[in-house]
Amino acid sequence: MKIMMISATDLPIPAYKGGATETLMTELLSTDLILKNNDIEIDVFCHCAGENFSNGNVNYCYIAPNIFDRVYFTFYRIRRLIMLRKVNIPDYFPIRLNKKVDLNKYDVIILEGNKNQVLNLRKNYKGIIVLHIHTVITFTPNTPDVIRIFDNCDYIIANSNYSQKTMKKIKETDGSKVLLLPNCVNSDLFNISNGQNIRKKLGIGNEEFVYLYCGRLEIGKGVLELIRAYKKCLHDGILVIVGASWFSSNKKTKYVKELEKESLEIKDRVFFTGYINHVKLSDYYKMANVVIMPSIYNEAAGLVAIEAQMCGVPVIVSKVGGLPEFVHEKSELKIEVDDKFIENLGAKMVELKLNKELYDREKSLALENVKKYTMKQYATNFLEIVNQYFRK
């Protein structure tokens, strides 16, 4: 079976420039279950510059953007601003791809997250189109042109029960085409450090209790609310914020500047690390006592939650979207996003620090929970979907 995968953005796969989706796919395509599988061959196409290469039966192909890509993207962005409403920006990469590759030699094409590639792909491709959604907020019943996109997909892959339930509402009579493939991580990558080198680098003592945020610095992630919770309820402990405004870019957006301003009065207790390469994240997780995912929008799933738990670190999550699914069902570290969110988040941070019995119990639950989220399990689940649904 010949499979094509198309990346969602200009971030490359393998994920040497970061990105949760890109990292997930890199890890999947690096497993022996995929690399040494004689029943499939996978070609990965990325809309960015790079040198083509192969690894086992997985081939990575890069097609750099050109002036046309930049012009049409600018045109549609201006058009959307003028119309004062949300409209999709069509992605012409599949059309460009069709000029270089015979798309119809592939049995199935999997789009890794970019719904705006579907319609242009269908213009030239007659086989099975699979849309793998990683951020459900971009693909809901309220998404512009959602029915046409839904109808032109043969299958849609959701990364959490919440995502699957949300996308089935798009067209309930055809909801059976929405499949479930829960996120997982490479457990080997998160068992290789004790984190002491990072504490030393940041000047944090071994006795300090460290709270860690890891992710993009954007409004929906709730980083501002986290800083306010820390200020409101804590008199000690250290807050470390890992991430940037856009993956590997450390550009200071208006929001990032707001975060820094909010932290001025406690600047000796808050550390902004900027972007950290994914292969080094285990050092940061393992130097932390607790990881916090304070999202205030309906996040589809939580790779950070799984990664942190792989390192034996308890995770506090907002009760939004699919986040609660990725911590143990018995965990007491799930916070409602309501008018008392900041207060309750801060109180739980304090409780987790002061209550050793609670902390030890949550640590045990974290280690138990992640046993079902290994990359070997992810590859197994992926191949089950391929064999059950994509083979003619």
Task: Describe what this molecule looks like in 3D.
This protein is of the alpha/beta class. Helix content is 36%, strand content 15%. It contains 15 helices and 14 strands. The protein has helices at 20-28, 32-35, 67-83, 93-100, 118-122, 146-151, 161-168, 196-202, 223-233, 254-262, 281-287, 303-310, 341-354, 356-369, 375-390; strands at 2-6, 41-46, 53-55, 58-62, 108-111, 128-132, 155-158, 178-180, 210-214, 238-242, 270-274, 290-293, 315-318, 334-335. The strands form two sheets. Strands 3-4-2-1-5-6-7-8 form an eight-stranded mixed sheet. The chain has a six-stranded parallel sheet with strand order 11-10-9-12-13-14, with helices on both faces. β7, α7 (161-168) and β8 form a beta-alpha-beta unit. α8 (196-202) crosses α11 and α9 packs across α13. The protein is globular, with a radius of gyration of 21 Å.
Quote the beta fraction. Answer: 15-25%
Order of helices and strands: EHHEEEHHEHEHEHEHEHEHEHEHEEHHH
Read across the widest sheet, the strand sequence of neighbours is: 3-4-2-1-5-6-7-8
| Average pLDDT level | 91
Structural class, by secondary structure, is alpha/beta
List low-pLDDT spans. Answer: none
Q: Let me know the number of strands.
A: 14
Rg estimate, integer Å = 21 Å
- Proportion in helices: 25-40%
Number of helices: 15
What's the overall geometry? globular
End-to-end distance, in Å?
10 Å
